Amino acid sequence: MSRLPVIAVTVGEPAGIGPDICLRLLDRVRQAPFAARIVVLADRFLLAERAALLGLPVSLRDWEASQPPRADTLDVLHLPLAVRASAGRLNAANAPQVLAMLDRALAGCRSGEFAAMVTAPVHKGVINDAGMQFTGHTEYLAEQTGTPRVVMMLAGGGLRVALVTTHVPLKQVPAAVTPAALEETLRILHREMGRKYGISRPRILVAGLNPHAGEGGYLGREEIDVIVPVLERLRAEEGMNLLGPLPADTMFSRSVLARGDCVLAMYHDQGLPVLKYASFGHGINVTLGLPIIRTSVDHGTALDLAGSGQADPGSLFVAIEQAIEMACR
User: Fold this and answer.
1) 3-state SS of the chain: helix, strand, coil percent to 5?
2) Residues annotated as binding site for substrate?
3) Binding site: residue ranges?
């Protein structure tokens, strides 16, 4: 038991499907146990109420590291909500507790109590409504750890897609794709592909920013002025295996993807629609560059499905499996 890594799973937005899919962890454990101990960070009474609503016979137990895991029991690190949560109904009063769950999981990862953290979805809007600026897990964890740059990468459907910019309005993307941002992203991606996936010299497919990768400057000069110089310098100085800049409308073809281990897109909706089409419900989000291991589901809070029994826990299961593999590596 002592050799098993401990994976912390945060329940996310209490009104969303996070509680639903966390409760389904016991279904997975009964079929095929994880090679780790799982502890869910949540309000224990929220989980009990949601289990009753879903008709799930779930046994909950307060987390203690000294207790052996049980296949019929979900270990819970109890973090009480400010007010009772109802499925599908957001309440800004609980936003501080949602962030407190992240802080507790992060502290446990940094102290060695947990080997990794896996996050269920949060609702950015309600956190901001509560008066706390929040653009996403990725940015929040970077800020809390003092990490100057992290890289969001989604994986699933046979694809790994990383991003230079994340939750940035489209009109701000060109200015955000600077030589420094691109170089730092490529360095992190190159390094983390080795650390987290065991690929020591990854082949990285790099997208252009503009249609047809700028068409030689006729459709934009970012490729000429920014992307190409950075790629050439990193190839020459670091020996990185970089292919691009590639037109985004053809880089996801089978023949091009076969030449790479991962894709680097310039912005959120350039790369992620393809990945989510290929893997939705079973893809995951990985934050590269943090001093800890963090994976996540690739979907949102799905308020309309909360408490209905229709939420698919597949992405959570994959996120935990990947976190375990990374922790063991």
Assistant:
1) 45, 20, 40
2) 137-138, 276, 285, 294
3) 137-138, 167, 212, 268, 276, 285, 294
